[in-house]
């Protein structure tokens, strides 16, 4: 994608990231009953039971926050520091091999400006609780745990001056990194209160919290009360840590397109060793190994195209075996609307690269075989749909889609002079667009109904019969992602891709195609 179009896409992304969650629809908020985003409530929870010091250090009985030098000195956390340092070294060495004429280092004098690790390990910074998100929609992964609850922390400088407007609207000095503490929604060994809770009861509590007319300290107290959804959450629930940091960025210049690279890592908690250990990223296909290892690529093709696995892949509930997965991912942003080498699955499907893993015939035959088995695929109805799912099922591909940079939850800034989710949006369009689906799943769990855990493509939300997103930027409103249909007259009408024909725009808007190859674009005001 050339500079003018890339700049256009960046401008739109910035506009969308500045829109408040309520800009496209009236209250109640989309994240009601599925997330905690009230700034002052999060401040109370950070100072109380869910400060990172309390969650990670059994010896910490005070409310004094961890600075990062103390955090990374913990024996449980030192493996994370070692792994991150190794990833930085690999990133630098790969850069020097691939782009020997482009300088790389910490500071504006370099072409590629690295994240400053001194700030990460400093006594002048810490991780601040920036959101709590229910992911009980992931209970299909571990049903006994009722899914996950995520405590999301944002790296912030302590006592630094405000950023931007130094008046009433100045933001706190936050650094481009989040730490996601992933907890079981129901612990294996809960206390007497938590042991009595079922998945249905936990889901009911989350949904009821969305109707509470509370904020600040009152909301924090109710969330952690005997009737609250967080009563059974504690250090014993810890399952893993996920990190996301902007490892490097390139500023826009005559010689460079703007680019930011995000490093994604996962660390499982080992209760026997009492430490976090490097792990594979869920469904993060290791493209380089698959393309280089003939046996591995053959095994992966056979596994994924099996009708049962293909159905799970279509529904977004597939769990790819670890032997095919990577332990780190780099997600470059922004990306365009056409297939690109910066996408995680680029080159795996015929038409991309020189040695694809899946031919067109492979995919068409697999779709036909699934149909013969009576499997009704919801999303993947073409080779292009299969290709798109290969990308958006991965961590990197999802974070490249409708995010704020490489984040889907950069977090609430309650350390600002006047905290406001209107001025600093806590989450991405993709995040807000997925809340209808997540809330529907909570209702099914609460009511004891069969649960539909499926999800659509990352670019378009699954509406589930709700009209809440219709006409918004999250679905088919101004700025939504869309598919440009071929003209109704003529032979090209038959070429409209069955996976995306429903990606239309609301009345008065038209799909402006950004890539003729993919026919993907954005919804804007129709030409009169």
Could you list some keywords that capture this structure?
528 residues; alpha+beta; 3-stranded antiparallel β-sheet; 17 helices; disordered N terminus
Mean pLDDT: 90
Query: What is the β-strand count?
Result: 13
What Rg is obtained from the alpha carbons, in whole angstroms? 23 Å
| Approximate shape | globular
Binned, the helix content reads: 25-40%
Order of helices and strands: HEHHHHEEHEEEHHHEEEHHHEHHHHHEEE
Largest sheet: 10 strands, mixed
N→C terminal distance: 28 Å
Give the number of helices.
17
Share of residues in strands: 15-25%
Going by helix content, strand content and strand pairing, the class is alpha+beta
Uncertain stretches: 1-25
Description:
The chain has helices at 3-18, 39-47, 52-56, 68-71, 78-98, 117-120, 192-195, 199-209, 216-223, 287-292, 294-305, 307-315, 360-372, 383-392, 395-399, 429-433, 435-447; strands spanning 35-36, 104-105, 112-114, 125-135, 148-157, 174-184, 238-250, 259-270, 275-279, 329-333, 481-483, 509-515, 520-525. Strands 1, 2, 3, 4, 5, 6, 7, 8, 9 and 10 form a 10-stranded mixed beta sheet that branches. Strands 11-13-12 form a 3-stranded antiparallel beta sheet, with no helix packed on it. The chain is globular and about 65 Å long. The protein is an alpha+beta fold. The longest helix has 21 residues, at 78-98.
């Amino acid at each position: 994608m050339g500079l003018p179009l890339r700049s256009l896409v960046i401008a739109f992304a910035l506009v969308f990231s500045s829109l408040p969650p309520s800009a496209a629809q009236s209250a109640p908020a989309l994240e009601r009953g599925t997330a905690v985003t009230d700034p002052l409530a999060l401040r109370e929870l950070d100072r109380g039971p869910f400060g990172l010091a309390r969650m990670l250090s059994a010896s910490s009985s005070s409310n004094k926050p961890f600075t990062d030098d103390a955090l990374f000195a913990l024996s449980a956390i030192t493996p994370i520091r070692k792994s991150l340092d190794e990833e930085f070294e690999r990133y630098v060495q790969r850069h020097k091999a691939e782009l020997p004429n482009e300088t790389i280092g910490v500071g504006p004098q370099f072409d590629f400006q690295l994240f400053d690790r001194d700030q990460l390990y400093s006594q002048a910074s810490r991780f601040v609780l920036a959101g709590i998100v229910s992911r009980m929609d992931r209970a299909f992964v571990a049903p006994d745990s009722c899914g996950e609850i995520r405590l999301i922390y944002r790296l912030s400088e302590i006592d630094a001056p405000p950023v931007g407007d130094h008046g009433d609207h100045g933001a706190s000095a936050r650094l481009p990194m989040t730490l996601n503490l992933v907890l079981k929604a129901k612990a294996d060994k809960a206390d007497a209160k938590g042991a009595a809770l079922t998945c249905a009861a936990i889901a009911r509590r989350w949904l009821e919290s969305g109707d509470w007319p509370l904020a600040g300290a009152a909301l924090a107290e109710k969330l952690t009360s005997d009737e609250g959804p967080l009563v059974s959450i504690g250090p014993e629930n810890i399952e893993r840590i996920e990190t996301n940091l902007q490892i490097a960025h390139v500023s826009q210049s005559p010689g460079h397109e703007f680019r930011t690279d995000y490093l994604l890592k996962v660390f499982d908690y080992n209760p026997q060793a009492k430490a976090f250990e490097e792990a594979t990223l869920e469904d993060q296909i290791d493209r380089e190994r698959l393309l280089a290892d003939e046996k591995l690529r053959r095994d992966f093709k056979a596994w994924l195209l099996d009708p049962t696995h293909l159905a799970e892949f279509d529904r977004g509930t597939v769990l790819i075996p670890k032997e095919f997965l990577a332990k780190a991912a780099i997600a470059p942003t922004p990306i365009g609307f056409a297939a690109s080498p910066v996408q995680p699955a680029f080159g795996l499907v015929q038409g991309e690269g020189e040695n694809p893993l899946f031919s067109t015939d492979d995919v068409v035959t697999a779709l036909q075989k699934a149909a013969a088995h009576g499997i009704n695929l919801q999303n993947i109805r073409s080779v292009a749909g299969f290709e798109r799912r290969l990308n958006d099922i991965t961590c990197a591909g999802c974070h490249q889609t409708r995010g704020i940079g490489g984040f889907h939850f950069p977090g609430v800034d309650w350390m600002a002079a006047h905290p406001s989710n209107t001025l600093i949006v806590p989450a991405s369009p993709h995040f807000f667009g997925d809340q209808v689906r997540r809330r529907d799943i909570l209702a099914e769990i609460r009511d004891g109904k069969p649960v539909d855990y499926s999800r659509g493509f990352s670019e378009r939300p699954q509406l589930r019969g709700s009209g809440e997103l219709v006409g918004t930027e999250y679905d088919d409103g101004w700025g939504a992602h869309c598919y440009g249909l071929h003209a109704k007259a003529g032979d090209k009408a038959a070429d409209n891709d069955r996976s995306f024909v429903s990606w239309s725009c609301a009345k008065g808007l038209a799909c402006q195609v950004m890539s003729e190859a993919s026919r993907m674009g954005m919804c804007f005001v129709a030409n009169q």
